[in-house]
Every structure is written in structure tokens, then in C-alpha cells.
Amino acid sequence: MRICTPHCGLSPETTSGGETYERELLVRLGRAGVQLDIILARGRRHPEGVPSWTVHRFPIARGLRWYVAPFVVPRAIQRVWKSARFDLLRVHSLRYIGPSALWARRHYGLDVPVVSHHHHLDPSPFNRVIEKRVVEGSDRVVVGSEFARRQLQAELGTRVDHVSVVYYGVDPAFEPRQPRTDLLERYGLRNRPVVLFLGGLKPRKNLFLLLDVWRQVVSRNPGARLVVAGGGALLEPLRGRVSRLGLDGHVVFTGYVPENDKVDHFNLADVFLFPSAMEGFGLSVAEAMSVGLPVVTSDRGSLPELVVEGQGGFLCPPEQADAFAERLLQLLGDAALREKFGWANRERVDRLFRWSRCVDETRKVYQDAIEAWRHRPGRRP
User: CA 303, CA 295: separation in Å to the nearest integer?
Assistant: First the structure.
């Protein structure tokens, strides 16, 4: 199987969950023997030495914008097609790559199916103009949750009979460990209850509610610390709100956390807190579960598919700070419950959310799409 996959980015140190998914999936597909023709802008970093990868370059030096893609992506796909007759054209983003891939297939007469990957829909007036057409024009679509599948049908009114749910994966390296002494000292966490948020500091993560929650928690458990691990545009506004709420000393901002340090940051915590109002999967939540942490998270988007209410954590409405605070205080005060939830979460990840399963199911979608394309009615032999 040979696949062409144009890309916006596959950085080894990305802070984007979607880009992390792409990188980890494609690395493992390459290790499994799938031949991948990856197209990236000049200068965009990617993992080195991955077997079965051939990296091609767009004639641009920066990452793609969706409105620029139609001017560079189709011709790049054609160049790859001329040098290597791939079996499938892969779309990693409905908005950024989808229109260009469908147009390239039609304009250049590429005899291949198109399989699109999709995470979730953000509010946009273009969704019914772009995303809907790409979904309907794709031979198969892969999403990371039942929620993402339902959202396509509900918000776009598109067919979903060709949409397959394949849950993302978590590396087994996300495992319980002893907390690193240097990190405990750096953040002032020794002998303190610790609640962790880890992720990009962006608006849909609902981070200002996070601080409202924490004000209630420290009023009843002043020794507890909230660690906000990650970087992003909201870092300084969040610092300012901490001061205005009188939470200085009760909240620790780590800044950007390198990929190799994420496991150790998860292992600083007693509870993982994730109030995001919109996730197509929720990779950070699955990673925390793999480390054996109980989770208090939002009851929206895909998150109820990851965390089982009352078995691995608690689900709360993303606008109700009181509900989050009560559940956090309950877990911080009950070590046995934390342990029970944590081990249940780890078992659930082993059963449903490992990369080996994700790779196998994704390959099957690709193979089915290729076979259906080759045997479609009216195709010339």
C-alpha cells in the first residue's frame, strides 16, 4: 500500500493535538510497512529516519494557509503521482487539504480513492461550503469519536454512511512513575495535593473557568496546587487573572512542556482536570488516563466516550465551576477513590486507546477504500 499525504506540519515538538495525532499515526504506519509520500513546506520539521517515509516539499517556506493550499497542493500531488503511482490520496484536514485533493484527482485524472481524516468542527460560516463538500466527495472519512461523526451529520447535514470511527492511540510510555524530584522542587509541589491541566492554552479549552474552579478549591483546601502545563496565546491573560483572583502562589504555570517531558508532568499530579468545551477526541485526557490518573472533565464533545462517569472520573457541564470544584475536592480527599479510578482508566486505555489498535483499524479503512475503488462499477480495467 502506498499513500500520498500532503501536510501542514508534523513537528516533533508540536503543541497541537491534531498534529500530534498525525505525526504519531504516520510514524507507526511507516514502521508497519505502509509506504508514505509525505508533502511538507520547505523548512517544516518532521521526525527523522522513519522507515517507509519519502518526504517531498511544497514550493513554499512556511506552513499552509487553507486559502493558499489550492495554489500549491494540487500540483505537488501531481508531481508525486508522476514519480510514484500511489494507491490512495490521504487528506489530514477537510479545510486545508480536502478541496485541493479532490480537485487534483479530478483535474489530473488520478485513479485513486480519497480518504479524509477529521477531528471536530469549529464554528465557521465556511463549514457548509468547504467541509461538507469534502466529506461528501471523499470515498471514506475517518474520525476519532462517535461525537465527531454525529457532529458532521447534525451541523452539515451530510451523509455519514462512509464515516468510520477510529479512536486515537496513546503510547505505552505514558505510565505511572515516581514523581521527578527536580520537578517537584522547581514547581514547589513537594508534599502537596496536585491537580494538573496539560494542553495548549487556547480559548476552546475553557481555561478561565479552570481558575474560577480553583478559587473554590483553595478556599477549602489551601495547600493544594494547580499546575497549568503548556504554552499558548492565553498564557499571559491567565497569569493576569490569577493575580486578580488572589490565586498567586496557588497556581503554577510551567510554560511549554516538551514531548519527552509530558509523562513526568502527568506523574506530578493526583488528579487531571480538563474543562474543555470542545474535543474531537481529547488526547491529553487519554494520556492522563494511561498514566493512571482520575479525571474531572467536561461532559461535552467526545470526552464522555473517554471517561466513564463514576468509574474513571467525573463529567461536569463546562459552564458550572461549582460542579468541577466539588468533584475535585471529593477526589483530593479520598486516596482510595483516586487509586480505583486511576487503575480503571489505565485498563480502559489498554483496551480501547492504544496506537496498535488505531493503526490496525486505520489500515483496514484504507485497504477497504482501495479495494472498493478498484472494483467500483464502470471502472476501466
Answer: 10
Residue 65, pLDDT score: 81
Domains belonging to the chain, first-starting first, are 2-169+355-374 (3.40.50.2000), 181-352 (3.40.50.2000)
The residue length of the chain stands at 381
What are the backbone angles phi and psi of residue 374, rounded to the nearest 5°? Answer: -70, -25
Contacts 24+ apart (CB under 8 A), 123-127: 126/95, 127/155, 127/156
Q: Are 237 and 177 in contact (CB under 8 A)?
A: no
Has residue 380 got a pLDDT over 70? no
pLDDT, tens only, 142-191: 999 999 999 999 999 999 999 999 999 999 999 999 999 999 999 999 99
- Cα atoms in the 13 Å half-sphere on the side-chain side of 11: 16
Is residue 363's pLDDT more than 70?
Answer: yes
Tell me which amino acid residue 148 is: A
Residues whose CB falls within 8 Å of the CB of residue 183, separated by 6 or more in sequence, listed in order: 189, 264, 265, 268
Question: Which amino acid is residue 171, in one-letter code?
Answer: D
pTM above 0.90, yes or no: yes
Q: Are 31 and 23 a contacting pair, CB within 8 Å?
A: no
CB 303 within 8 A of CB 297: yes
d(CA 340, CA 367): 40
Q: Given this model, what pLDDT does residue 381 score?
A: 62
